[in-house]
Amino acid sequence: MSLDRYYRPELDALRFLAFLSVFTVHRMDHLPIDPAQHFWLYNICLLGNFGVPVFFLLSAFLITELLMREEDRLGTIHIRSFYMRRILRIWPLYFAVFYGLVLLMHFIPHTGPPDPLSWLAFTLFAGNWYICLHGWIPAFPVNPMWSISVEEQFYIAIPLIALYGRRIGLKIISFTLMAVSYAMVTWYASKGFHGFSSQWTNSFVEFQFFSAGTLLSLALKGRTPRWSIAGRILGIFAGITCLFVASVYLGVQADTPSSTVLLAPLGWALVLAGTILFFLSLLGTPRRYLPEPIVYLGRISYGLYLFHELIYTLTFHTWRAQLQHFSSFLHLSEWYGGVGTFIAFCATVLLAHLSYRFYERPFLRLKRRFTFVPSRD
After folding, report:
1. pTM value > 0.90
2. Any idea where the domains of the chain sit in the sequence?
3. What is the spatial distance between Cα 233 and Cα 214, in angstroms, rounded to a whole number?
């Protein structure tokens, strides 16, 4: 049995913008920017880390929306079908990429995780907790996968809460997790910071964004903001301002946060506000304002996200000499970084497109057997 389709292409556009933010900040892993010489460029690029909370909020919103529509139409939520949908969407590409990197590291240095304990952690979707305990993995292509672990932890609980707690249960759990997140943020700030902090990959800190996405779905009840295009653009700039203030002046950063006990909750609240503003500014945008290529890139954003650090590593490290020769051939030696970034972006898009078309789609077709409220997949 299938119910009315729920698909909002503007949220695919938001997915791509979130990926583009992450793509921008991860470029600094390979081509560092001196903050003393380029203050504005460095700090604007650093805001790209906040693309991950956008993914979290968006995911929670859509999952909650689909579950509530299923419950309203069928009178129940099919737990087994939910888990099968998530498995078919997430697991095939996740495990192919992760264990592909494990094999690749035997041929190309710094592409895969060398520690067997990390293999176990990421296999059990506890990769974020591994990073919390051991720090970032010295192989850039693996590190973005921590966020998939956090999402999977959310997916385990959300259908059970929706089934047995209904809307009131979802609200209670969401507000509780929000309080826990800010208690954790305050606790981290009270410890002081000396280099790497595990708060960025701590599930209980990031759950605030899942809670916000769930609460937004319940509050909007299928409605969308009827903002003008000017109002939406203003909302996006307001969101950027929130993130900039939180990062630069209140010390909320992914790797080396420096907030005080008083400023940390305020800084994270601004990050949450900025994330919500981005979401609301895109939600309900008329289709005519959404370029089809951007919507498609959002559709394949899962692959873009999983592949981009591998492509960066190959471009700027493994094939660094070839890139330098190519840039020189084009008489663009001074723009070596820009040439490499353009090549990395195009290669990432190509790989994600091929993955989506020839590898992910068969699993997505199987997913329809367990779908009651069709979405874009």
Report:
1. yes
2. 9-370
3. 24
